[in-house]
Design brief:
It is a single chain. The protein is of the alpha/beta class. About 30% of the residues lie in helices and about 15% in strands. The strands form three sheets. Strands 9-7-8-6-5-10-11 form a seven-stranded mixed beta sheet. Helix 5 crosses helix 10. The longest helix has 16 residues. It is globular. It binds N-carbamoyl-L-aspartate (NCD). The site of N-carbamoyl-L-aspartate has 11 residues, from helix 2 and helix 6.
C-alpha cells in the first residue's frame, strides 16, 4: 500500500482538511522547512505541457529540502521512441521516492500507481482529473471565505474536458458547498463524473440561471445545480443568491476531437461583468492558463484570486509531498477493480493507448481508468 493520489476520492474528508491545515502552516513561511524532507527525491514526469503544476511541485520539494529529477518534454523522453507508460514508470520508480505524473490519456495515473511501488501523484490525466489543483482551489476558497460549507461556486467554461472542474465539483459537494455547472454549449460536465458525484449523495438539478440575462445575450442560460440541498424549482436566481465564487476555465482545445474548434458563448469575465450586482462580492478563480476568458483589466480587482491561487500551489504541494513521503496510505475509497476480459474503447483512455490490466468501476458499469461507457445498458 502506498499513498497514491490518483483521484480526489482517494482522500477522506479528514485527510483533505488535514492537508489544507498543513498547507496553512507551510504558507506562513515556505522557507522555514528546508530540513523536513532533506535528500528525498521527487520525479516529475510530465508528458504533457505544464507550467504551474510542475514548477510548484518542484519548488515545494526544494522548499522541503529535497531534490528533483524531471522529464518535462514528451519529445525528449523515451515515450517518443515508443516506450510504454508502464515501462517508463517502472524505471522512474527506481530513481525517486515519489512520482508526479502528467499524461494526455485518461487513467494514466491509475496505471502508473498500480505499476509503481513508490507513491504516484496525478498531476493531470487527460480530461479526467486533477486532484492536486483541487487542493489548491479549496485552499484558496477556504482562505477567502474561512469555510467551504454553504458556498456556491459557479464552474464556468469547458466542463467536459476541463479536468480541474471534475475533481473540484466532487470536493465542493463533499464539503457542503454547491456547484452551479455553467458550461459552454457542447462542453457540458461528463455524465460519468456527474453520476459519481450523485452516487456520493449529491443532487443534480437542471436549472435556468436568471438575473444575468443582460450578460448572456438576453437569455437565461441553462445550468445544473449540484449539491446536497433539496431540489430547487428549476431556477437559480443570481439576483437573490449571488455566487460566492466563479471558477473560470479555458476551452481545452487540445482535447477536442479531430481538431474541432469550440464556439465560446459565455461572456468574458471583465470589468463590465464584475460591475453587475450579481457579482458584487464574487471571487474569481481560474486554474490558469487563461486564453481570453478573463480580461487582464480585472487583475488588480480584490475579487480576482487567480494569481494567489497559483501561488498557493507551493504550500499546498509541500503539505501533500510531506504527507506522501511520510508513507501513511490515504483512506479514501478506490473505485476500480480487475475485470478480466473487459477492454475499453474510448479513444482518450490509457487502455487504448497501450495494453493495460482491465479495470471496471465497482458498479461494473464504467472503465476503471477513464470512466467511459455504461455497461448497464
Ligand atoms: C490546468 C490543467 O492543466 O488542467 N492547469 C493547471 O494545472 N493549473 C488547466 C488548463 O490547462 O486549462
Amino acid at each position: 500500500m502506498t499513498c497514491d493520489l490518483v483521484s480526489i476520492a482517494d482522500l477522506s474528508d479528514a485527510e483533505v482538511s488535514g492537508l489544507l491545515d498543513a498547507a496553512e502552516a507551510f504558507a506562513a513561511d515556505v522557507r522555514a522547512h528546508a530540513a523536513r524532507r532533506r535528500d528525498a527525491v521527487l520525479a516529475t514526469l510530465f508528458l504533457e505541457p505544464s507550467t504551474r503544476t510542475r514548477l510548484s511541485f518542484e519548488a515545494a520539494m526544494l522548499r522541503l529540502g529535497g531534490r528533483v529529477v524531471t522529464s518535462s518534454d514528451a519529445k525528449s523522453s523515451s515515450s517518443s521512441k515508443g516506450e510504454t507508460l508502464a515501462d517508463t514508470v517502472r524505471m522512474v520508480d527506481g530513481y525517486a521516492d515519489a512520482i508526479v505524473l502528467r499524461h494526455p490519456s485518461a487513467g494514466a495515473a491509475r496505471l502508473a500507481a498500480d505499476v509503481a511501488r513508490r507513491p504516484v501523484i496525478n498531476g493531470g490525466d487527460g480530461g479526467r482529473e486533477h486532484p492536486t489543483q483541487t487542493l489548491v482551489d479549496l485552499f484558496t476558497l477556504r482562505r477567502r471565505f474561512g469555510r467551504l460549507r454553504g458556498l456556491t461556486v459557479v464552474l464556468w467554461g469547458d466542463l467536459r474536458y476541463g479536468r480541474t472542474t471534475h475533481s473540484l465539483a466532487e470536493a465542493l459537494v463533499r464539503f457542503g458547498a454547491r456547484a452551479l455547472l455553467l458550461a459552454e454549449p457542447g462542453l457540458e460536465f461528463p455524465a460519468d463524473v456527474l453520476e459519481h458525484v450523485v452516487a456520493g449523495g449529491a443532487k443534480a438539478v437542471p436549472v435556468r440561471a436568471t438575473g444575468v440575462e443582460g450578460l448572456f445575450g438576453g437569455t437565461a442560460p441553462a445550468a445544473v445545480l449540484l449539491g446536497r440541498d433539496d431540489p430547487t424549482d428549476g431556477v437559480y436566481r443570481f439576483d437573490r443568491e449571488p455566487p460566492d465564487a466563479v471558477y473560470v476555465t479555458r476551452v481545452q482545445a487540445e482535447r477536442l476531437p479531430g481538431g474541432a474548434t469550440a464556439v465560446r458563448r459565455l461572456p468574458v469575465v471583465d470589468r463590465a461583468l464584475l460591475g453587475h450586482p450579481a457579482f458584487a462580492g464574487t471571487a474569481i478563480l481560474h486554474p490558469l492558463p487563461r486564453v481570453g476568458e478573463i480580461s487582464p483589466e480585472i487583475d488588480g480587482d480584490p475579487r480576482a484570486l487567480y494569481f494567489q491561487q497559483a501561488e498557493a500551489g507551493v504550500p499546498v504541494r509541500m503539505a501533500l509531498l510531506d504527507a506522501v513521503l511520510g508513507g501513511r496510505p490515504f483512506g479514501g475509497a478506490r473505485d476500480a477493480e480487475p475485470a478480466p476480459g473487459f477492454r475499453c474503447a474510448a479513444p482518450a483512455c490509457i487502455g487504448v493507448a497501450e495494453a493495460v490490466p482491465p479495470l471496471l468501476t465497482k458498479n461494473g458499469r464504467r472503465c476503471g481508468y477513464c470512466g467511459a461507457g455504461d455497461r448497464s445498458r
